[in-house]
Amino acid sequence: MYTIKDVAKLAQVSPSTVSRVISDSKQISDETKKRVKKVMEEIGYHPNMIARSLITKSSQTLGLVLSRSTETAFSSPFFSEVIRGISKVVQNHQYSLLLATAENYKEEGKQCMKMIMEKRVDGVILLASRVNDDLIEKLLLDDYPFVVVGRAPAGARIYSVNNDNIKAGYNVARHLLNLGHRQIAFLNGSNEYIFCHDRYEGFAMAFREFGLEIDQTYVIETDLQQENAYFYTKQLLELDRPPTAIFAIDDMMALGVYRAIKEKNLEIPDDVAVVGFNNDHFTSLISPPLTTIQIPIYEMGINAAEMMMDLLKGKEVIPQQRILSSKLIIRNSCGGKPRKI
Amino acid sequence: MYTIKDVAKLAQVSPSTVSRVISDSKQISDETKKRVKKVMEEIGYHPNMIARSLITKSSQTLGLVLSRSTETAFSSPFFSEVIRGISKVVQNHQYSLLLATAENYKEEGKQCMKMIMEKRVDGVILLASRVNDDLIEKLLLDDYPFVVVGRAPAGARIYSVNNDNIKAGYNVARHLLNLGHRQIAFLNGSNEYIFCHDRYEGFAMAFREFGLEIDQTYVIETDLQQENAYFYTKQLLELDRPPTAIFAIDDMMALGVYRAIKEKNLEIPDDVAVVGFNNDHFTSLISPPLTTIQIPIYEMGINAAEMMMDLLKGKEVIPQQRILSSKLIIRNSCGGKPRKI
DNA sequence: CCATGTCAATCAAACGTTTGCGTAAAAATA
DNA sequence: TATTTTTACGCAAACGTTTGATTGACATGG
C-alpha cells in the first residue's frame, strides 16, 4: 500500500508538501498541487486515517452506545430509525460511526468507556433510557463530549434530544377520557426506563385534570415484551370490572394486547379500546388500525448527531436540551364517538 | 491523558516493558507485571488503539456495509437481526464494528472502499443483495478480506452466508399448489436483488415439478415498498381471473397485500390466500396470522462474523459458502384444506 | 547594493505504540 | 572458577501522518 512518501517521491516533492496538498493548504502553488494530485490519482493513494488520527488526535468517528442490550435494542424500530438519522448527519460531515454493542447494560458501559479511552472515537451518542445512568456521570467526569437521545438529567454540560413523552402520555389519556373511558389500563414498561416514567406521568396528569383517580389495579409494570402484554391483558380482562381501554407503552406491546383481546372473542374498539405508541409501520395495517403516537425518531437522530458535530467543532449548541413533539395518530382502535358513561 | 511512557516512569521501567506487560509477554517477570499493572490501574491507563493500530497494522475493527440505501436497509428487521448476530461475535473477539452508511448504492461502495483504503477496518462484511455487485470485484482485486451475507457469485476467495431462497420459494409454491391453487400471483421485488431472483426461481421450479406453466400476468416486479404491494394487488384483483393466491416477496409487502384485499371486502384465505417471507414479528399478530418463511437471520449474522474472524486469524474457513435453511411457517392465511380445482 | 518581504517548499520533531536486537545480571553447567 | 545459557529488561527504530520552524529563491523598495 502506498504512503505519503511514495507520493512525495513520485511527484518529486517532500512528504510535507503532499500533506499540505491533501489539506489544500494555500502555501502550495497550484502547479504543484496539480502534479501531486495527479500522482495520488494514478497510484490510488488514500491517506492512512490511523496515522492521521494519531497526530491530529481526532478519529473522525462517532461512537454509538445503545444502552439496552443489543438484543432488545434492535428488535425495536426505534433504534433503526434513530441510527438512520444519525448516519445521515455523520456522513455529511465525513465522519464514521462506531457501534458499541454488548449483551447487557454493564458490559455496554464498559465498551463505551473503552472506545473513549482507547481514542477510537471523538464523541459518543448515547441511546440512553435508563433512570440512573451512571455512564452519563462518568462521561461528565471525564469531560468527554456526548449527547444523549432520551431524557437526561438537566445539567450544564448535558446535551440531549428527546420526544415529549409526558405530553404524549397526557394526550393519549385525554383522548381516552374524552371518549368516555374511565377504566383505563396502563400497560407500562420497566421502571428502569425514563420514557416509561414520563408517559405514565403524562397519563396521570390527564387524570388529575379530569379530577379523577387512577385505579392502580389497572396499572401494570412489566418489561417490553409482547408476551407479557398478552399475558397481563388476559389477566386484566378476567377482572370483575375489566378495563374499557388499554394504553400500551409501545406498539409491540399493543400487538400482544390485540392478541389477548381477540382470543377472548372481544371486539376492538367496541369492547376494549387500545392505544399504542411509536407508530410502527405495521400499526396502520393491523385490524383494526391502531391509534398510536408518532414520534419523530429520525429527526431525533438528526438532531443528536448535529449537536454532537457542533460540539466537536466548538460551536455553541443551543438549545442544549431539545424536545421534539409527537403526534397522536387516531385510527380505529378506540372507536369514533364518545361512549356514554 | 496518560501514555505508556507515564506508566513506565511511574513503574520505574521502560515503555517497552509496559508494552510487554500489556501483551502479557512471558519475558517479563511476574513481579514486574504486577507492579506495572498496579500503576495502570491506579492512573486508569488505557492503551491508545490508534497508535497501536499504526504499528500492528490492524484496527481491530470490522466494517459493515449495507448495500442498500440506509433508508430502506433499516426499515427491514432483516438488518437489525443480522447486525445483532454480527455484534455478538465481534464483541466476543474484542473487535469493533464500523458502519458504512450512505444514501445510495454508489455512495456506499465509495464509503466502503474508503474505510478500507484508510485502514480503518481489517475486513468488511457486505450485506449484499445486488445482482452485479461491482464492490465484490473491487474487493477481490485488492485481495481484501470480506464476507458477504446474501448470495454471492461462487469463487475461490469468496466467502458467503445465505439462506436457501430457492428452496424457500419452492416450498411456498408447492404449499400453494398442494392446496389446489393454480392462479398464483408472485409479487416480486426489484430484479436488482439476487434474493428476489432466487425466490422466483424456486417458485418456478415447483410449477415445473407440477407440470404447470406460470401465467406471467400474475408475476409482478416492483420495489420493496408496501405501497406498491397495495397498488399492484388492487390491480391483480381487478383482473377477469384474479389470482386465488398471492406470494409476496416479504412480509411488509404482504401487509400491503392484506390491505388491498380487505379494502375490496374479500376474505383471507377464503377468497385469496397470502404468503409472506421473513416471519417478521408482526406476522403472527395480524389477522389472519400470516403464513410465511422464517429465515435464521441472527444465525446468518453469527456465521458471517465468525467466517470473517477466522479469515483474519488465518484459519481455514470451511465451507466457504454457507446456506442456512429456512422454514415454512404455516398459519391461517392460506386456509387449511386443499381447495378443489 | 542592501534590507525586507513574500512565496513555495523542505526539515525534523512529534503522536503513542510495538518489536528486533542488544546486554547486564543471574543461573546453570562444566 | 570460568564459561555458557537463560532471564528480564532497555534502546532505538519504525509505523504514516501533521505542522511549526526554517530555508532559499526571487521580487520590491529605498
Explain how this protein is built.
The structure is a homodimer of 341-residue chains. Chain A has 341 residues and is of the alpha/beta class. Chain A has 3 domains: 4-47, Orthogonal Bundle (434 Repressor (Amino-terminal Domain)), CATH 1.10.260.40; 61-162 and 297-324, Rossmann fold (3-Layer(aba) Sandwich); 165-295, Rossmann fold, CATH 3.40.50.2300. Chain A is 45% helix and 15% strand. Chain A has 13 helices and 12 strands. In chain A, the strands form 3 sheets. In chain A, strands 2-1-3-4-5-11 form a 6-stranded parallel β-sheet. In chain A, strands 7-6-8-9 form a 4-stranded parallel β-sheet, sandwiched between helices. Chain A has a two-stranded antiparallel sheet with strand order 10-12. The longest helix of chain A has 16 residues, at 77-92. The radius of gyration of chain A is 26 Å and the shape is elongated. The termini of chain A are far apart. Chains A and B meet through helix 4, helix 5, helix 6, strand 2 and helix 7 of A and helix 4, helix 5, helix 6, strand 2 and helix 7 of B. Strand 2 (96-100) of chain A pairs antiparallel with strand 2 of chain B, so a sheet runs across the interface. Chain A binds a DNA duplex (30 and 30 nucleotides) through helix 2 and helix 4.
State the shape of chain A.
elongated
- Average of pLDDT of chain A: 91
Task: Classify the secondary structure makeup of chain A into a structural class.
Answer: alpha/beta
CATH superfamily of the largest domain in chain A: Response regulator
How many strand segments of chain A? 12
